[in-house]
């Protein structure tokens, strides 16, 4: 049985989180959207922010993992417009009925993901949900928080 960090990242913060999980023996798998997001930040905020707010599930590549082989699955996602990014909605759909052994790491510009956390807790009441502020800019916080999270 393996431990998995499956995540989406548009601008690299999720990759910094994945690097920490790999140091703790986690397999890391990055979801890639089949359609790329716009290049400009304004267009990203408008498109991504809107789609995230309606719970859109984006098309992603085949993750190539069998979740039933994983004792713990940690889903990592940026916060978009106070919601999970669209690819994370797809990952959650792929988990099917599984709620046990599923935890979350949310990364955002503000470090505040209260709305998304409350929503996740409705479906995953036992989940640990870690909210990080911009992991690329806050490496010490990231290292320490993930050390505690994996225990
Ligand atoms: C479309 C979009 C919407 C965002 N909305 C929020 C938000 O509501 N709150 C926040 O704190 N940060 C927001 N951000 C910032 C990202 O959550 C933050 O930069 C995150 O660390 C990005 O992760 P990534 O680099 O792995 O993609 C938004 C970014 C984008 C692109």
Give an account of the 3D structure:
The chain has one domain: Flavodoxin domain (Rossmann fold), CATH 3.40.50.360. 36% of the residues lie in helices and 23% in strands. It contains five helices and six strands; from the N terminus they run E-H-E-H-E-E-H-E-H-E-H. It has helices at residues 13-23, 41-53, 86-94, 114-123, 139-150, and strands spanning 2-7, 27-30, 70-80, 83-84, 102-108, 129-133. Strands 1, 2, 3, 4, 5 and 6 form a six-stranded mixed beta sheet that branches. Strand 1, helix 1 (13-23) and strand 2 (27-30) form a beta-alpha-beta unit. It starts with a strand and ends with a helix. Bound molecules: flavin mononucleotide.
Remind me, CATH topology? Answer: Rossmann fold
**What is the helix content?**
25-40%
Class by alpha and beta content: alpha/beta
Strand content: 15-25%
How many separate domains?
1
CATH class membership: Alpha Beta
CATH A-level architecture: 3-Layer(aba) Sandwich
N- and C-termini, Cα separation: 17 Å
**How is the main sheet built?**
6 strands, mixed
CATH 4th-level superfamily:
Flavodoxin domain
């Amino acid at each position: 049985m393996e431990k998995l960090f499956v995540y989406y990242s548009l601008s690299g913060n999720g990759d910094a989180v994945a690097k920490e999980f790999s140091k703790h023996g986690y397999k890391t798998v990055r979801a890639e959207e089949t359609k790329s997001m716009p290049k400009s930040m304004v267009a990203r905020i408008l498109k991504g922010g809107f789609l995230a707010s309606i719970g859109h599930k984006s098309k992603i590549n085949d993750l190539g993992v069998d979740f039933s082989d994983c004792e713990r699955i940690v889903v990592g996602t940026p916060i978009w417009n106070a919601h999970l990014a669209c690819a994370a909605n797809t990952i959650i759909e792929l988990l099917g009925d599984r709620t046990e052994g599923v935890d979350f790491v949310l990364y955002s510009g503000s470090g505040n993901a209260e709305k998304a956390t409350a929503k996740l807790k409705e479906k995953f009441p036992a989940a640990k949900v870690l909210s990080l502020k911009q992991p690329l800019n806050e490496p010490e916080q990231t290292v320490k928080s993930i050390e505690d999270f994996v225990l």
